[in-house]
Every structure is written in C-alpha cells, then in structure tokens.
Design brief:
The chain is mainly β. About 10% of the residues lie in helices and about 40% in strands.
Length: about 400
C-alpha cells in the first residue's frame, strides 16, 4: 500500500476545502473500480482526475485488475464505421477506437500498443494504436522509389478471383527491449516474375511516426501462403518468418533483429520436426507468442496439436511443453496466452470464439462468443498488455 504522503501529493484539494474521504481511503476505493468506470469518473473533479492519471495509481490498478485484455476489429451495424475494440475476458467492452478505413486487420501482438493494417485498394496502409489514449497514428504510405512496380492482391467475390495493381505487403510490429521504441517491419513482395523481396522499417519513438528506411533485402525462399502473404511474428524484439519448407529444412526461420535492424542467421526448428514432411495434406505449421515465448505449433490435423517453446535462441533449444487434444486445423485455432491457473486461452477463428483449454483435464470451454458481440469482423486478434488508465 502506498504511503499517505504520496497519496496526499497525488490528490490535491482545491480551495483549501477538506476532502470528502481521506486520501488513503479514496485511493483504495477507486482501485476497486474497472478502468472503464474510472475514465468516466475523471470528470467528477480535478482531484479525482489527477489521481486516476497518476502513473503510480495506474500501475497499482493494473496489478489489481490482471484479467487479460484482447483486441478485435468491429463494424458498427448502424453507422458502418470500423475500428478496434478492447475487450476483457469477462466480455466487457472497455474501449472502442474508430479507424477511417475498411478491410482492416490486426497484427498479432502482445504489447501495450496495437497495429492495424488495410490490405485493399487504392493503397495499403497501417496504423499504430494506443488504446489508453485512443490515438491512432497513421504510418506513411507505400509510394516510394524502392517499391515501384506491380504486385498482386487476391480477393474473392461471389466465387470469382480478382487481381489488382497494388502491392502485396507483409507487416510485423514489435518493441525493442533496450530502448522501448516500437518498430514496424514491412516486407514487400512483387508477383512471381519479380521474385526479389524488399524490406523497410519505421521507428516510433513517441514524438512522431518517423519515416520508412530501406533495409537489407530479406533472405530468399521465405514461406508465402496462397495469397502471397507471409506469417510474421515479433517476440521479444525479434521478427520470425518461416522459410519455404518445400526448398528448405522444415521449421527453419529467418529472424530479423529490431534493435540492430539486421537479418540474423537461420534459426532451426525443433530437431524432431526437421525431417518431417509438411507437404502432406493435414500437417500444418504455425507460430504463436505464449507469454513472451516463441512457439511453433505442429498440427497433424486430427492426430496431434503440439506446442514447441523456444528456450534458447542462440543454442536453438526447443522444448515441447504441451500436446493439446484439439482436432481443428491450426490455421483456425490460435493459442494466445497461458493464464495463471495453467489454462490456455485460444481463439477459434471460424466461429470467432474465445476458448480456454485445460491441460490437466484436456477439456475445451467456450468463454466468449465474439461474433455474437458484433466485434470480430475479421479473423485477427491482438493481446493488449497495457493499462487503459495511462
């Protein structure tokens, strides 16, 4: 419990009038309220506003309200506006941030910021969101000499495929551990006649959104899906991208260090998987971030759903910690985080369900129906680790 002297400093009294409650008592009472209510109570008086904006109070409040927060895209049924909503595991919508765009997707992150991208014509765009302040910073667009050319985007409408003259781009969003700066890595890949990949990066240092800077070209033979998008994931300041296991050793990855802004030597996957055949139907690989650990999902659909944790990057040491009794394809089932009681929170992308998997009983329980809440317009999700009071 903070000292009363600190609390008196954090809760000034106007015009010399005595406070209705002692500072210690007010501090304790307000700590019990959820962040959404506290944001409204800031309008009551200047002293309450000062207290709820105090960093010490915000940190103490987050420690008391440790329930995980998730971010989903939404489309308002009445106005048609789109944006991002922050939701607690209890189902309460705590914050809505509107984005002036359509077809938005959230990058998978475990940070106190969120990154949203738009993938349709007339141009690709990206925003970095601070849910605490509801501020969205638009990143500079794609018009630059380094990225002139033709790329392809596949969209499906009424069963027909359309191609557009626009860039196909993969984004990854992470934070540098040493400085705390946020960075966005952008990999641009043209259509197959022009196979060379390009990479650039932008730094957000808190004062501005910065500018895109061209970096070393990515390694060749990175894995792309059927619409030319790569699966990128940033964990602890490093972006990981699978190599194409048709031409490279399965589970091998190209790491990119967000601090040095350089591609690192190839990271090999778990030894038992290096000779596995992932070209067969039903055997899938995916990446996940579970409590700040890089995880490879080895999903032999209908047979096994194994989670391999990277324990030591330099040594390439992996440990299989979980085998889940899940029969769905890992493309549709995404592990998000591990709760204090050992349960694993999972996002089921098809039905837009948040579920909890209990490793001790091998049971899967539905927790939140995101689609019924009208939030999950897309299949993307982010884990928000910050406080909404900052």
């Amino acid at each position: 419990m903070p000292s009363s002297s600190k609390l008196r400093h954090a809760v000034p009294v106007s015009n010399g009038a005595p406070a209705a409650l002692p500072a210690d008592a007010l501090f304790e009472v307000l700590l019990r309220l959820p962040a959404k209510d506290l944001c409204r109570l800031r309008a009551v008086c200047r002293s309450w506003r000062a207290l709820t904006y105090d960093p010490h109070f915000a940190a103490e409040h987050k420690s008391r309200h440790a329930d995980p927060l998730f971010a989903f895209t939404f489309r308002d049924r009445d106005s048609g506006d789109r944006g991002v909503a922050v939701v607690g595991l209890s189902g309460q919508v705590l914050r809505r941030i509107r984005i002036s765009s359509d077809c938005i997707e959230l990058l998978r992150t475990h940070l106190d910021r969120l990154c949203v991208i738009r993938k349709c014509k007339p141009s690709l765009a990206a925003w970095v969101l601070n849910p605490a302040t509801a501020v969205a910073i638009a990143l500079p667009g794609l018009q630059s000499d380094e990225f002139l050319g033709i790329c392809i985007e596949h969209r499906f409408h009424w069963g027909s495929a359309f191609t557009h003259n626009c860039k196909t781009v993969t984004y990854a969003f992470g934070q540098v551990t040493s400085t705390g700066y946020y960075k966005v890595l952008r990999i641009s890949h043209p259509d197959h006649p022009q196979p060379k990949l390009c990479a650039d990066i932008i730094t957000l240092d808190g004062s501005s959104q910065g500018r895109w800077r061209r970096k070393q070209n990515p390694p060749r033979n990175l894995k792309r899906n059927e619409i030319e998008i790569m699966e990128c994931l940033a964990v602890n300041g490093v972006v990981y991208v699978f190599f194409d296991y048709d031409v490279m050793e399965p589970t091998s990855m190209a790491p990119f260090d967000l601090d040095t802004e350089k591609w690192m030597p190839t990271l090999r996957g778990p030894e038992p998987l290096r000779s596995a055949d992932f070209r067969v139907y039903g055997r899938k690989l995916a990446l996940a971030n579970l409590n700040d650990s890089l995880v490879i999902i080895d999903n032999d659909v209908g047979v096994s759903f194994d989670l391999w944790f990277l324990m030591d990057h330099n040594r390439g040491l992996w440990v299989k910690k979980y085998r889940l009794s899940i029969t769905q394809n890992c493309f549709y089932v995404l592990p998000l985080l591990i709760l204090d009681d050992g349960r694993i929170v999972i996002f089921e992308r098809v039905e837009r369900l948040l579920q909890c998997y209990d490793p001790t009983t091998h049971s899967l329980t539905d927790v939140l129906d995101i689609k019924a809440m009208g939030l999950a317009e897309s299949q993307s999700i982010g884990v928000y680790t910050g406080s909404l009071l900052v």
